[in-house]
Amino acid sequence: MNVVSSQSIAPLHGLTVIDLSFTTPGAYASVFLADAGADVIMVEPPTGSPMRKVTGWPALARGKKSVTLDLHTDAGLARLHDLIRDADVLITTSRPAALERMGLTATHLAELNPRLVSASITGWGTTGPWANDKGYEALVLARMGVFHGKAKMSERPGPSFTPTPWASWGAAHTAVHGILSALYERESSGAGQHVEADLLRGAASMDTYNWFFELVCARWPEAYQAMYAYDDQGRPAAPLIYPLLVAQTKDGHWLQFAQTEPRLFFAMMTEFGLAHVFADPYWQGVPLFEDVERRVELWELMLEKVRERTLAEWQHVFDTNPDVSAEIFSDPVAALDHPQLQHDGRVVTVDDPDLGPVRQPSTLVHVDGRPLTEPRPAPRLGADTEEVLAGLASGPSTTPKADAPAGNLPLAGVTVLELGSMFAAPYGATVLTDLGARVVKVEPLAGDSMRTLVAFPEAGGAKVLQGKESVAVDINTPDGLAIVHEIAKKSDIVLQSYRAGAAKRIGVDAATLKALNPDLVYLNAPGYGTDGPYGGRPAYAPSVGAASGLTMSDLGGLDLHGDDLDEIKRVAVRRHTAGANPSVQADGVAALGVASSMLLGLLARKRGRTLGDLTATMMSSATHALMDRNADYENRPEPPVSDPDLFGLGALYRLYEGSDGWIFLAAPQDSEWNSLVEALAPYTDLAHEKFSTPDLRRINDAELAEALAAVLRTRSKFEWEKDLNAQDVGCVAVTERTPEIHLQGDEYFEAGYTVLADSPIFDEHRRLAPLTRFSRSGVKADAGCTIGEHTDSVLTEIGLTPERIAELREKKAVG
Q1: Measured distance CA(52)–CA(706) in Å, rounded
Q2: Are 619 and 340 in contact (CB under 8 A)?
Q3: DSSP-assigned letters across all residues of 113-151
Q4: 66, 160, 653, 703 - which has most CB atoms within 10 Å?
Q5: Where are the beta strands (DSSP E) in 20-88?
Q6: How many Å apart are CA 386 and CA 767, to the nearest integer?
Q7: Cα separations (Å) of 119 from 158, 183, 753, 775?
Q8: Which residues contact 810 (CB under 8 A, 6 or more apart)?
Q9: Per residue in 181-240, pLDDT tens?
C-alpha cells in the first residue's frame, strides 16, 4: 500500500506513549497517536487487557506494543514508574482513587518525569460530586438526558438505550486535544503537564444547536416553545422532517434523504412529482404548517412516492440527478463498502498473525490523498515486555524541571483561517479557540447558514461561533478573494470544508494558499471527500449517520421494516430519532476529529515534520467512531447488541423502572457481582445457585432481569442512585429532559461543567466549559459573534484604510 510516509518520518515519530487504559476511550485516543507514528506501549496485566475481548481490538490496538506488568505488586509498580520516566505521554482511564493508590497523581507524575504530558480520561472528571462514581458510558448518557432524547427509537414508553460509543469517542478526542496542545506548548516551555478529559463533556460537545434553542425557550417561554421532530403520537412536528426524509423503497430498503437547502428540497419534490405543492394555496407555507393534519398528509404523500420505486430505480435517480441524493442505512461493517471510502483508500486490510486478514478503517487523517501511516497488526499479549523493559533505566528521573509559565493559553499566537459552513468542520475550530487559538471565520455577507437554523436570531450558530472573529466577505468577487488571500498570509492553519472542487474554483485551495504562505497547515474537512463519486454531494449528519453505520448502531442492530404505511411511519420515526437527534450525531463526531487533525498538523510543523495537505472527512470520522465494532475478520466476537426494546445489553447493564421514573444499572463486570448482591440484600436475595457464576448469569439473563426489575420498581430512582453508589455499584437516575437544558442547570454549573460567557445576542449566559482541563496552561470560554462583527478590525490589520473598507462595503464585497 502506498502511504504518505514511513513510520520513521511520521509526525509523532520519536514520542513514547504509555497507555495504561483498559477501556474504549483510552484505546480510541492512543490509536490516533499510534496512527500518527507515536510509539504506543500498552501496559497490560498478565491476564491481558479486557479490551482484547472487544470486537474492534485488532483495529483499536493496531501498531501498538504490549508490555505485561502486575501492578498489584511493588515490583510491577516500580517498573511502571520506570516506563513513565522515559515517556512523553501517559494515558489513564482509572478513577482518581485508583490512580492515587498506584502513585499516579498529577503531582507524583510530575516528580517522576517533569516533561511528561499525562492525560486522565474519566467518566465525570476528577473533581465534583461524581468524581469517584463509576464512569460507564451508559451512566453518563443516562444522567445527561441522552437516553431521554432517544426515547422514540423504541415504541415502548420511556428512555431508550444506545450502544454507540458517543461519550467514549468524545472523551478520547478531547483527551487527544489536550495531549497535542500540551506537547505543542512543551516544544517552547520544555515542561509537561497534566490534562483531563471526561465522558460527560465529550458527549455534550456533540450538540449542534440545541443548547441555544433550549436557552431561548427557557428565557422566553411565552414566545418560544420547544419543537421536536415528532409529537407524542409520532406525527411530524418540525419542518426538517421533510427534507431529511426517512423512507422505505418498494423492495424494502431504507433511504435517508439530505435535501436541506431550499433548491435541493425543490429538486426532491420535483423528482417525487410533488412540485405543484409550492404553487398550491392548500400547501401554503410548505414545509411548515400550522395544522397537524396537513403535516401528516404531506409526510404520507412523500413516503408513498419513495415506495413507488425500487432501490435500483432510486439509485439511477441519484446517479443522474446531482440535486437529489440519499444514503442507504448500513450496518457498521457493510458501511466500509461505501463507494467514497473505497475511492479514498480509507479501508485497509491488515494481516494479523492470529486472526488472519482484518478489514478496518485506515488512519483518520490522510495526507496528500493517502493514509498517514501504514496500519500494523495489534500485538500479542506481552510480546514486547522483554525488549521494552531491557531498555529502561531505573531510579530517579534525570530530567531537570523547567521553569515553565502557568496560566498561558497553549495555542496562544496560533491563527486559524476558517472557510466553511454549518457545524461538522467549523466546530473543530471552535474547540481550538478555547485553547487560545485565534479563529478568523470568513462567511458570506448574509452569514453562515448555521446562524438561521433556529427560529431566533443567531441561536442556530451561537455554539459553533464561540470565540471566533467574523469577517463578512463575498469570496466570489476579486476583492473578496484578495482579502482572504491576505488573511491566509498571516495564518497558521487553513480549515476548508467545501464540497469537492469548490476550493479550487474559488481560489482558496491548498496549492494557491501555500504559494502565498508555504508554512500553512492546510486541512480539508469535507463531508465525503475532495473528489470521488460522492465528493460533490451535500453531507448532513443524518445522511452520514445512515451511510457510516452510526444510525444502525444506535438502533442496536435492529433492521426494522414496514409492510404498510402505518408501520413504515412508525419505523421512520425510530430511524430518524437514531440518526438525527441533535444531542449526539455525526456532526459532533466529525468536529472532534477535525480539531484533532488540525492540532496534529500544528504539532508536526513545530516538530519540523511539516505534512502535506491533510484531509479528514465526516464519513471517515464516523467510521473511526465505530472501530470498536466495524473491524471485520473471521470468527470475530459479535459486538454488543441491545435487546429489541432497547433497555440495554443485559440484566446487569440496562434501564429499569423505579417507583417514580427510570434508573440505569451498570454492574457488567464479574468482579462487581458480589457488591451488587450485598447492596440489594436488604431487598432481595440474588445469591441463588442459578446466578452463582458468570456463565450461569449469562444463561439466565432474562430471569435475572426480571428479578432485578421486580425489586428496583419498589423505590424511587434517586434513592437507588444514592444507596447503590454509596456501595460502589453503578447506578444513576435517568434524566427525562433534553441534555442541553439539563446541563444548563445549577448542579452542572456549580460542578464546573458549564461556565459563564457574555454574548452580543444572549448577554450573559451559561455555555459548556472548555472540553479539556490543564494543570498549568489556561483555557478560555468566549461567546459567539455577530455577522461581520470583526470585518473592519481584521481588514485594518491586513493594511486596508477606512476609506478602502468603505469602498469595498459600497461594492458589497464586504459586510
Answers
A1: 31
A2: yes
A3: -TT-EEEEEESS-SSSTTTTS---HHHHHHHHTHHHHTG
A4: 160
A5: 39-44, 65-68
A6: 49
A7: 36, 11, 18, 10
A8: none
A9: 999 999 999 999 999 999 999 999 999 999 999 999 999 988 887 778 898 899 998 888
Convert the pLDDT of each residue in 118-156 to its tens digit: 999 999 999 889 998 999 999 999 999 999 999 999 999
C-alpha cell at 90: 501517559
> Cα–Cα distances in Å, from 605 out to 245, 539, 718?
44, 30, 51
Residue 235 CB coordination number (10 Å): 15
- Cell (9 digits) for 190: 520544555
Looking at the domain that runs over 7-207+394-404, which CATH code has it been given? 3.40.50.10540
Any idea what DSSP says for residue 582? Answer: S
DSSP state of 289: -
Is the model's pLDDT at 5 over the cut of 70? no
Which residue in 364, 357, 319 sits closest to 341, CA to CA? 364
For the chain, the structural domain boundaries read 7-207+394-404, 651-737
Buried/exposed code over 313-339 (b: 16+ C-beta within 10 A; e: otherwise): ebbeebeeeebbbbbbbbbbbebbebe
Q: What are the respective helix, strand and coil percentages of the chain, to the nearest 5?
A: 40, 15, 45
| pTM for the whole structure | 0.96
From first CA to last CA, the distance across the chain in angstroms is 48
HSE, side-chain direction, 13 A CA sphere, residue 389: 18
Residue with the three cell numbers 496549492? 511
782: helix, coil or strand?
Answer: coil
Helix axis angle for 292-307 and 565-580, nearest 10°, is 100
Q: What is the separation of C-alpha 352 from the centre of its chain, rounded to a whole number of angstroms? A: 28
SS3 410: coil
Please tell me the CATH code under which domain 651-737 is placed: 3.30.1540.10
Helix (H, G, I), strand (E, B) or coil at 371: strand
Q: State the pLDDT at residue 396.
A: 58
